[in-house]
Amino acid sequence: MFRRFFSGNISSADLWVEAILLAALLAACGHYYRPALEQFFSQDDFPLLATSRPGPGWVPPHLFWFMGSERAYRPLTIHFYFHLNQRLFDLDARAHHAMNLAVHLANLLLLYLLARRWLDTPAGALFAAAFYGFHAAHFYEIYWVSGISQLGVVFFTLIALLLFLKFKDTGQWRYCAAALLAGAAAFLSKEDAVIFPAVLTLLVWESDQKGNRSLYPALLSAWLLLPAYWLWRVAYLGFGLPASGVYQFGAGLAGLSHKLADYAGWLLAGAPGQAALGLVVLAVFYERAVRRLAGRPPANQPSAVSHQRSAGGSQPSADPQEQSKRQISSEENGNVKWNRVLFLALFSVLPMTPSLLIPSASEHYLNLTAGGFGILLACVIETLPRRRAALLFSVAAALFLIGFSLKTHAHLADSGWAVPVPAKAEACRDLFEQTRRVVIPRDCGVVLLYPPIEPWEKDWLMFLPKLAQDRADLNVTVFAPGESPAPRSGCQYVWEWVGGKWERVLGDR
User: Fold this and answer.
1) CB–CB of 202/160 below 8 Å?
2) Domain that includes residue 496, residue range
3) Phi and psi at residue 304, in whole multiples of 5°?
4) Tens-digit pLDDT profile for residues 467-482
5) Percentage helix, strand, coil, to 5, in the chain?
6) Is the Cβ–Cβ distance between 445 and 488 less than 8 Å?
7) 133 and 47 assigned to the same domain
């Protein structure tokens, strides 16, 4: 069974083993991210919770479709998702983080199913899924509830790709319609979904190698989602492409080169990942060079002798014409394999192209890119002989997991307020619990003095006391470090950041 698992020739009786290994991978990934369940809300979580909070005085759900800005129009993953979670769990931060983790595990499962379509062996698909599931790029998406926008767009994109592949296999247009609906949901989850038609174009190109041109009408329908999305933004929302803020277009050549370097470092997660990639490249080049010098066909491709023996003959055919046909068939198989590698390389690059057009850069932009790169690595390793591939899968997986663990530990150890977690989340939990224990009269307001934040961050901190008091009309004023507070007037409840914690100011009323 071990040999079949690494060769791809598994039987239906072996499927239960594959299912158990996949379940074990999902359980391990869930356990790996278990510390995220202990985190509190932070940063952008508070305005999103407030604008989607159920109950009187807050925004009604039917307006969610028309809320947003040119920078972030994401009704599904921002407003409806937060609204549903609050109806189910109120302000239980542990449950909100658990929902994000559940979406991530669903993405891992979907990526595994996609990898099984594009790879030859279950071992390769498990390697790709593990690379994706444990990648450090998912840290903020799971430890920060607002990261659901990136998780959501990947979730709907993967569903759309699997449905489109089902349509390619069966020719049934109901699968195409379902894929287009999932693609539309991806557009309403995050702007990164603009790459969806281009990804489907890649799928059609890969299929067209076999002359499958019946997919072109479906592809045209997918491209029509782009003008429809644009018209909706302009006609009903009043804005088009981002033109201001951190999402404005035009990163500049210098910024683009720095961003590509950052992305490469984040994707490989430091020295262990770089060593793993180096081993893969060296092993593949060594194998191809040795086989070329020996005049043998590439690994995992049948020679003329193996073709003859598999047909039941004990000796290879002496017919030169027959041997020539076998050799051509072997070369064609090799071309198909490396065409798949090229396809997966393009599939890995496409998801991050929207972020290359904007000045901002963040590790979580590499969500789907990490999945595509994991499948690409597995596809390259599968070109090696079975035993070498098994060894390289094991060594590369261990090195990448070490790199991802070190990167995640570095994130958790970061005590600066420049990141959403964990220090900022703990400070927010402290303030939330203090303000929730106090009953603030209707004619009183809240003043927060000198939290260690940037002036622009006051916009999200103002929502925290409103959520704690469950009052949208609560007047909250925040004075960042260096700002002079206005003279007190009327009834005010004051909290001040002193010595790394919040303290209630006595005599604040």
Assistant:
1) no
2) 423-504
3) -65, -35
4) 999 999 899 999 888 7
5) 70, 5, 25
6) no
7) yes
